[in-house]
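User: Can you predict the 3D structure for this chain?
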Amino acid sequence: MLFQCSNPDFHVRSVQDDEIFAVRRQALCTSEVFRDMFTCCGESEQTLDLYESADNLSALLNLLHRPPPPPTQIKRDEYHLIPKVWNDPKTVIPLPLLPRLFALADKYALPESVVGVLGEHLLAHAPEEPLMVYILALSQDLHHVASRTTQYLQPMANYDLDEVKAIPVEAYHRVVQLQDTRVKAMRKYLLSEDIFPHGYGSCATHSRETTHLWNSKRMNLAVKVETLTDVAGEMEIAAYQEPIQSCAVCRKACVAAVEMLRYKCRKIPKTVDKLNL
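Assistant: Here is the predicted structure, written as structure tokens:
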């Protein structure tokens, strides 16, 4: 990470790489560690030696002089897409850089506001890299980020031991409980949602065939349900199969059943903080 400073009045040297950075002393004072250093050394010193690599020092100085803003959020217009809000990738700090930035923020006691923004950048990666984000969030005590990330985790059985061994046992167990709760609830709602409940809205021409199609599809889906399954989305496919596709009455009933299923599934806890056990 390149670092440049306008109007510098102080210097910091990387002892490891013997590289000097021109900086603003006031910006360094954002760090509690630097404030303590200046208190001990007084105002006479014009260069501060740090046993950091030039790369780490550059990253730290950028955090101090130009604290990153939160990612730019983009509201998604497409129907039913999750998450509803997306982060502009051009404004998100790359995931491989974040562990180092968190380590530097902790080592030099940067303000909570800076750590909080780093947490927002970490959360922006959760849909694509949920396990890595979850583990890093736990290690930084970013419980809000960790909790929100649990909605994106694959079934825990899908991960190798080497991938999950960094998760504390209690946190791992809570995720397993969440996923088990979700699967049981989705399966329950799926198997109880009839296309013609109590005969309501039944089609005089296709009732038997449509009911058979709906029941067959939901029974096949029920055995495949996992924590990330979009149950309503999977059942919505029935609306494009015969006889439902060509029959206005059957199609109306199918759409109503799918929307009711979607409504019920939306009430199922998505994150561990919503889990009441």
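The mean pLDDT is 91. Residues 42 and 147 are 44 Å apart (CA to CA).
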